[in-house]
Prior knowledge:
Mean pLDDT: 91
Shape: globular
Number of domains: 1
Radius of gyration: 11 Å
Amino acid sequence: MLHNYNDVLKVSDLAQVLGIGKNAAYALVNQRIIASIRLGRMHLIPKQYLIDFFEAQRYNVTKL
Length: 64
């Protein structure tokens, strides 16, 4: 699933992976639901952070 993406994703990549809009992806990152590294104005999401999010959601039944 994530093999087609770089090791570090941009928010636009995150939106594409999750099948959501860019604004919704920014909301997930800004609310720290998905961890990111901020460089200036850019949010970078290492693949491991996204995998951690997926694993946490397995046990979390709340809606995003």
